[in-house]
Design brief:
Blueprint (H helix, E strand, L loop, with lengths): L6 H6 L15 E7 L7 H13 L8 E7 L7 H10 L5 E4 L1 H9 L6 E6 L18 E5 L6 H11 L5 E6 L6 H15 L2 E6 L6 H10 L4 E4 L3 H5 L1 H10 L4 E3 L2 H5 L4 E5 L1 H16 L15 E6 H7 L5 H6 L2 E3 L1
Parallel strand pairs: 1-2, 1-3, 3-4, 4-5, 6-7, 6-8, 8-9, 9-10, 11-12
Antiparallel strand pairs: 10-11
Helix pairs in contact: 2-11, 3-4, 5-6
Length: 325
């Protein structure tokens, strides 16, 4: 996969504040679609709005955002994407892979900017990261590239662990690719794997029961939006079952997961805001290279570690970007 300038670099190229919507002009209207709920997207939306504000956009003043949240019902995404396309919004922001695929398939040529997508080339959103072509561009969180690193960190945290339960959603477009990456990394790290499918939240209790019955020494979560939607429920369930976990986002660790390693989302959404500004000023998605992160954060919850009886190695703690006491 061809590497380009990263998200941090893109975010730094802040343009001068826009002066859209002068006296008497209509505010600009964009759409935003996500497979999860408004609450699940709150940290991302806050980061995006803050970045847009730095560029001169204020929701309700010179910018209107039409939101469509599927609330975990991914089958609704095509309909929601068609609704936004019919609204004649200037562009559609699609958060996560399922929403991006739905927006890409919506009729018409409304530009689409995707975010929090793991592998946009592999799933056909763009033909190349540097030259997307078509009506889509955006940012990737490189979820596929992080599997081995996350497993390495889990090995450092739990040197005696052998059995690793992997929570995965077979319905997610890049789940199979991530599973293959996990399988490839496991032998060298000394992990025996068991994949536990969670197609909907109702399947979570049975999956965790199977992890306990095995018994698993730890749990790794495949990056996908379903369990992000239910991150508090998942963190509580893992803690109740005394299962150390490698989560995906920092917020999941703040909610009670043991640790996570992922792209810094605030930087990804600052870069996305820059692209929104460029499209509103007349750029084409085909001209905008897909942006990739250059910085990642290791987050550790010491409170959870104490509850689980996990001794966090000093070297790992010192390397953490955020430590929750």
């Amino acid at each position: 996969m061809k590497r380009r300038a990263g998200v941090a670099g893109m975010a730094a190229c802040t343009l001068l504040p826009t002066t859209w919507a002068q006296q008497g002009e209509e505010p600009l209207r964009i759409g935003l679609i996500s497979p999860t709920s408004a609450a699940a997207n709150q940290p991302r939306l806050e980061a995006l709005k803050a970045a847009l504000s730095e560029l001169g956009y204020a929701e309700g003043r010179n910018l209107v955002i039409d939101y469509r949240f599927a609330d975990g019902r991914f089958e609704r995404l095509p309909e929601l994407a068609r609704e936004l396309a019919a609204q004649r919004v200037r562009l559609i922001v699609a958060i996560n892979t399922p929403a991006a695929l739905a927006a890409a398939a919506a009729p018409g040529q409304t530009p689409v900017l995707f975010a929090s997508v793991g592998d946009p080339v592999a799933i056909g959103l763009v033909r190349d990261l540097s030259r997307p072509g078509g009506k889509l561009s955006g940012t990737t969180n490189m979820a596929r590239d992080l599997s081995q690193k996350r497993m390495q960190l889990l090995r450092e945290m739990l040197p005696a662990a052998r059995r690793l339960a992997v929570l995965t959603n077979p319905g997610d477009p890049i789940a199979a690719s991530q599973e293959a990456d996990v399988r490839a990394a496991a032998p060298a790290l000394g992990f025996e794997l068991r994949f536990l499918p969670v197609r909907d939240v109702a399947a979570l209790p049975d999956a965790l029961r199977r992890a306990v019955d095995w018994p698993a020494d730890a749990v790794l979560r495949i990056a996908e939006p379903l369990l992000t939607q239910h991150r508090v429920l998942l963190a509580d369930a893992l803690l109740q079952r005394r299962l150390p976990s490698m989560m995906v986002t920092a917020q999941e660790v703040r909610d009670g997961g043991l640790m996570s390693y992922f792209a810094i989302e605030a930087e990804e959404y600052r870069a996305l805001a820059v692209y929104i500004d460029r499209l509103l000023k007349g750029a084409s998605p085909a001209e905008l290279p897909v942006q990739q992160p250059t910085r990642f954060a290791l987050v550790i919850n010491l409170r959870t570690a104490r509850q689980l009886g996990v001794a966090v190695p000093t070297a790992l703690r010192l390397r953490a970007d955020e430590v929750i006491e």
